[in-house]
Sequence to fold (119 residues):
Amino acid sequence: MDKVNLAEKFGLFEEHWRPKIVGELNGQQVKLVKVLGAFDWHHHENEDELFLVVKGEMRVELRDKAVALGEGEFLVVPRGVEHRPVAQREAHVLMFEPAGTLNTGNVRTDKTVERPERL
Fold:
């Protein structure tokens, strides 16, 4: 049982859209990801997904609106809802989702990470 320092963990990687696992509990994973630009449109059939902005700002685009998130704000995207995260400048994001959730959901692209690295 060790504490996790988010700034320290974010300092261990540079790449964008490559989530890293930093914790697990009750079948859920806590992941960190650096985001920049636009991700791929996708949805998750069986999993809800939480995006918490730790540093910077981003928006989660939905087909009918966009939700802007600043530092300390989060959004839960319900399963089945098509979405696309977007960041104009690099943002640091904590994600909380069931273990095994594929980052690109129902699609496979060059941003798909089959097995996220553990930090």
In short: The chain has one domain: 6-118. The chain has a mean pLDDT of 95. The longest strand covers residues 83-98.
